[in-house]
Specification:
The protein has eleven helices and ten strands. By secondary structure, the chain is α/β, with parallel strands linked by helices. The protein has one domain: Aldolase class I (TIM Barrel). 45% of the residues are buried. Bound molecules: 1,3-dihydroxyacetonephosphate (13P). The site of 1,3-dihydroxyacetonephosphate (13P) has 15 residues, from strand 10 and helix 10.
């Protein structure tokens, strides 16, 4: 059932668990996540970066695919289709394309500009029934081999953005996308507490969900995190399973056992199963299993 993410995240915040946001890249990825959510009776958020949307053919293709899969697979749990780290133009395009939720990431803009653009997009999204996530304090990450530290958001700025009426807020607390460097000092849980106090109960979002120790994930949920984004972990699981399959010689189109021809469905199956296992592991850790109602 495609819905916006407001109700599922308010419920998660009130009941002290987090809903997993899993990024999708193709049909197999999407199907694996939807079927796992249904099996575990967990709400779920499908995250789509602008790059992944472009790869799949555009926002409209993604919205049509997700909607059709959701219906055809008979998914009954709440599913939100959410733009991840959207630009201003991308966020507007997703509202028109049939997404149910958007993120506007204005964290790299001067604060006043982030504030103004977020405000405009809150009205734009709410007019059409979508939920909206905003970001304060850029999430670090590795680009071109250089790892930037994650920023720690200013609670007063978080309050100003939350007061615009955004439905959930990504506030940097030292988290970064991708693999954490060996000298990473962990999440700033003290900052999370201050941000939680300043923003009065709005569900908070933790990006960079790959590689954060389980005890810190649980402490973050206690501190008001109700949505946790995971991408790299699923990519690694998919790649490792595919590699193992290929190294075993099973993807060799000249091999004797491929008398029926080379079958891409078989090549993608191990990765599909690996994503299902990873999503299950995360939903259990986040505490969202059985929370679909
Ligand atoms: P990871 O790639 O570190 O799991 O982070 C995903 C994310 O935050 C997407 O917005």
């Amino acid at each position: 059932m495609l819905v916006n993410a407001t109700r599922m995240l308010k419920k998660a915040r009130a009941e002290h668990y987090a809903v997993g946001h899993f990024n999708i890249n193709n049909l197999e990825w999407t199907k694996a996540i939807l079927l796992t959510a249904e099996e575990l009776k967990s709400p779920v958020i499908l995250g789509v970066s602008e790059g992944a949307a472009k790869y799949m053919g555009g926002f409209k293709v993604v919205a049509a695919m997700v909607k059709a899969l959701d219906e055809s697979l008979g998914i009954t749990v709440p599913v939100a289709l959410h733009l991840d780290h959207g630009s201003y133009a991308g966020a507007k395009a997703c509202v028109e394309a049939g997404f149910t939720s958007i993120m506007f990431d204005g964290s790299s803009l001067p604060f006043e500009e982030n504030l103004a653009k977020t405000k405009e997009l809150v009205d734009y999204a709410h007019d059409k029934g979508l939920s909206i996530e905003a970001e304060v304090g850029a999430i670090g990450g590795t680009e071109d081999g250089i790892t930037a530290d994650g920023e720690v958001a200013d609670p007063a700025e978080c309050k100003k953005i939350a007061d615009l009426g955004v439905d959930f807020l990504a506030a940097g607390i030292g988290n970064i996308h991708g693999i954490y460097p060996a000298d990473w000092t962990g999440l700033h849980l003290d900052a999370l507490e201050k941000i939680g106090e300043a923003t009065g109960g709005i569900p908070l979002v933790l990006h960079g969900g790959t590689g954060i120790p389980d005890d810190q994930i649980k402490a973050a949920i206690k501190g008001g995190v109700s949505k946790i984004n995971v991408n790299t972990d699923c990519q690694l699981a998919f790649a490792a399973a595919t590699k193992e399959y290929c190294l075993a010689g099973k993807a060799d189109p000249t091999a004797e056992n491929t008398s029926k021809g080379y079958d891409p469905r078989k090549l993608l199956k191990p990765g599909f199963l690996a994503i299902q296992a990873k999503v299950k592991e995360k939903m259990e850790l986040f505490g969202s299993v059985g929370k679909a109602a």
